Amino acid sequence: MNSTSARYDAAALTHYAAQLLQRAGLAETMARTVADTLVQGDLLGHDTHGLALLAGYVKELESGAMKRDGAPLVISDRPAAVLWDGQRLPGPWLVHQGLDLLLPRARELGTASLVIRRSHHIACLAAYLLRALEEDMLLVLACSDPNTASVAPFGGTQAVFTPNPLALGFPIGDGGVMVDISASITTNGMSNRKRQAGETFDHEVLIDAKGLPSKDPAVLFEQPPGTLLPVGGQTHGHKGYGLALLVESLTGGLAGHGRADPPEGWGATVYLTLHDLHAFGGKAAFLRQMDHVAAQCRTNPPVDAARPVRLPGERGLQRRAEQLAAGVHLAPSIAPALQAAEQRYGLKLAGALR
What we know:
This protein has 354 residues and is of the alpha+beta class. The protein is built from eleven helices and ten strands. A seven-stranded mixed sheet has the order 1-2-3-10-4-5-6, sandwiched between helices. It has a three-stranded antiparallel sheet with strand order 8-7-9, with no helix packed on it. It is globular, with a radius of gyration of 20 Å.
């Protein structure tokens, strides 16, 4: 069975990833949560932010850059607004703990927000949106990494921001909407994958250090380095620039910790807000409005008849259902990246093959 046709059992993948994380020192409950979040990313098709991250997480645990056990430090706690110091604990575990905290508060108060500073990396944002769909909530989630930079402000040539993803999830009558976008045209993960494969982008989504447009992710690794372009590119990049500033204000600004502080390594500052649909116009009224909008989008005459208009997240949810039933496709680069850790800890990804 070759790498392009191989399929893995989702539950076996989760068990494998949890075992690898535990053997690298992560507490069992945290390992299970992190493993499930990574696999959910692959199930949804976000394969640069699924198990592609596992080898890196293991190295972070081994070096001590990711904390192996403990709890977040509560900096501020008001009924609808909370600030945590994540103490560099695993990001997926912190985000799910945060959602556990916010859900009852949002049900009581209508809206509740949490900001987490000094989290480790939080993986695929779309994976957390599944909980909003299940809980009749509207979730807004944003993330920045104040420890690094790869995106220049519009009109500039020196990196200030990370891609600064912004996500939104809410239920509709037949599924849900899951928006997972970033303030840059592409991501660091995709740039790294293409560089390692010797590939270039189809469009000019980067600039070099002189501001010249490029399709080649290698410009990010030149000295001086190039940068990713913000959404809108060279003509309308003020839009992505604005989104980046929105995310920075919601994360580093509200956290009081970000780019003005010394870098600590790969990590994240996170913003989460839950809105309870029942606390405003009610779920039925929300669905009446959003189902109407969804229908107008889906029935919109397409530019290309072979590519009808879909809702954000619609294909991801379909892919998730398909892969839960038939097995998960993993990017070909994942298995080789895990071999060194497998040898250290006596595990085999191949054991999760269907």
